[in-house]
């Protein structure tokens, strides 16, 4: 019982520290201190790996998996929405050229449900 409680507490602390480090990385990246921002990202990822926890989704998409830089959309990252074969968001790191595709399947399903509900209400 005590071990589980301690483990939850440690994981909560780890998430808090990751959040603090990522906020610091964002501030430093906005100032132009890319190396310091990269170091904060490295430390946050190290904490997550050490504690065996998932990296928070809101920060996960702001990090380049290839070079580890903090991505600021419009400055060192390009974001495009594509809908050819399947709807997705394409994020390109302008430092190393890495490309990340995030599918928008859930959004498409929600939109279809909404259209379906409108049609049912009209009948």
From TrEMBL:
Binds 1 zinc ion per subunit. Its cofactor is Zn(2+). GO terms for cellular component: cytoplasm; ribonuclease P complex. It is found in: Cytoplasm. Its EC number is 3.1.26.5. InterPro entries: RNP4, Rpr2/Snm1/Rpp21. Zn(2+) binds at residues 64, 67, 93, 96. Keywords: Cytoplasm, Endonuclease, Hydrolase, Metal-binding, Nuclease, tRNA processing, Zinc. GO terms for molecular function: ribonuclease P activity; zinc ion binding. The keyword Cytoplasm applies. Signal peptide: none annotated. GO terms for biological process: tRNA 5'-leader removal. It is an enzyme of class 3 (hydrolase). It catalyses: Endonucleolytic cleavage of RNA, removing 5'-extranucleotides from tRNA precursor. Coiled coil: none annotated. Belongs to the eukaryotic/archaeal RNase P protein component 4 family. Consists of a catalytic RNA component and at least 4-5 protein subunits. Part of ribonuclease P, a protein complex that generates mature tRNA molecules by cleaving their 5'-ends. This is Ribonuclease P protein component 4. It comes from Methanocaldococcus vulcanius (strain ATCC 700851 / DSM 12094 / M7). The gene is rnp4.
């Amino acid at each position: 019982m005590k071990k589980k409680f301690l483990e939850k507490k440690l994981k909560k602390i780890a998430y808090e520290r990751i959040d603090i480090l990522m906020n610091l990385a964002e501030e430093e990246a906005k100032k132009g201190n890319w190396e310091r921002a990269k170091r904060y990202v490295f430390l946050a990822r190290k904490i997550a790996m050490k504690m065996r926890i998932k990296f928070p989704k809101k920060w996960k998409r702001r990090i380049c998996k290839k070079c580890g830089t903090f991505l600021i959309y419009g400055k060192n990252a390009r974001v495009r929405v594509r809908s050819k074969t399947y709807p997705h968001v394409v994020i390109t790191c302008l430092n190393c050229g890495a490309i990340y595709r995030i599918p928008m399947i859930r959004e498409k399903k929600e939109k279809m449900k909404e259209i379906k509900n409108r049609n049912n209400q009209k009948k």
